[in-house]
DNA sequence: ATAAAAACTGACCGTTCGGTCAGACTTCGC
DNA sequence: GCGAAGTCTGACCGAACGGTCAGTTTTTAT
């Protein structure tokens, strides 16, 4: 073959192939079917070859999780540190989250099992990513409290509730294979929480 | 020995001993350490004896999960079908949930992994219990909507959000080993959702 | 006391799976 | 064309685990 081999690019290409195989396997047959043998088979290479690219199973799974979550994490971070108002940030956050899910339904099936995946490989890994998301959301809420657009609440706790509510809707969408527009679900979460966070003064003034 | 053996009671006692051993193991070393050998060792009997009481590992784990969840499930059901107003039911639900968690912290560590445990044993098992909880909560919300104390929302979706928010706070309590009174956390969830569910009319009238 | 019945034991088996490595195969430089 | 360097292979290994059962111990009935 005349095409270049041996390059970092080519190597990355092969790594991608393996990762895609892992994702396909996970989506099609669940985590239990992701054995190194099956991964190799799905990729179309021998088991030993997988070990030329990843030290062990844990490293492979972490790589898969990282590439799968990277785009979402990045987008969410952009939203959280942006210049919009706290209300708009929360609305944007949940919408992005659910939209990403709809775009990559198969991918997200893995993420729903993330806690399990995480526990299979080296524990507290996911905690960092999750904690960052909670922390970022909490900062937005705290900002809203400071600006008097939210009433005074424990930001971290509400942030956790907000994220988990979003995940809950994502879950519902997946299980029910719901044809509901993403926007509706995103609006539901945002409406509940923004109304729930509205300061008493605003509630007295009345809603739009 | 003069004490009675062979009785159903005595058998139940032995089964309890095995289940307690499973819970101790889970709490102390995580799900991965729950092998039949370790369970037997922890109970103080031989592996084969465990199989005199449970057909296989799956049956044992299901029994453990059932006994652990039964009291909570029962209490929550009482609340959900009771005569109180929808608002009070939701408040009572989240309070019971978090209180039960505080009472049996160790036990609940398992419940947090329930999804994983479930997946390890025969899949959709937990789905039923979870679905019942969601359905019950959704009925309460639907009732509130009918009585015009809640605004018109998708009851099932909000129910899922409500439960997951509760779980989120429970999680926070566990991770942070928070000394916060349970009542405060329960109130937070309830406040957010009740405010979020309040009909526009009520918001115009103003809050207490 | 004794024998039948019941309860218990733990060595053993089969399977699964992560990881290894000696050798086969491919590519590259000359 | 040829040998060296790099790449790939899959048979193999050891550990872990769920489950079994022939044999041992304990309990019960007489």
How are the elements arranged and paired?
The structure is a homodimer of 208-residue chains.
Chain A: H1 8-29, H2 36-43, H3 47-53, H4 57-81, H5 86-103, H6 105-112, H7 114-120, H8 125-146, H9 155-176, H10 182-197, H11 200-205
Helix pairs in contact in A: 1-2, 1-4, 1-6, 2-3, 4-5, 4-8, 5-6, 5-8, 5-9, 5-10, 8-9, 9-10
The structure holds a DNA duplex (30 and 30 nucleotides).
Structural class, from helix and strand content of chain A?
A: mainly alpha
Runs of chain A in which pLDDT lies below 50 for 5 or more consecutive residues are: 114-126
Shape of chain A: elongated
- Kindly, what is the distance between the CA atoms of the first and last residues of chain A, rounded to a whole number of angstroms? 67 Å
Using only CA atoms, what is the Rg of chain A? 21 Å
Strand residues, percent of chain A: under 5%
Number of strands of chain A: 0
Helical region count of chain A? 11
Largest sheet of chain A: none
The helix/strand series of chain A, from N terminus to C terminus, equals HHHHHHHHHHH
Give the oligomer, counting copies of the same chain as homo and different chains as hetero.
homodimer
Give an overview of the whole structure.
2 copies of one chain form a homodimer. In chain A, helix 4 packs parallel to helix 8 (125-146) and helix 5 runs parallel beside helix 9 (155-176). The N and C termini of chain A lie far apart (67 Å). Helices cover 77% and strands 0% of the residues of chain A. The first copy, chain A, contains 11 helices and no strands. Residues 114-126 of chain A have low confidence and may be disordered. Chain A is mainly alpha-helical and 208 residues long. Chain A binds a DNA duplex (30 and 30 nucleotides) through residues 1, 5-6, 35-37, 40, 45-49, 51-52, 56-57.
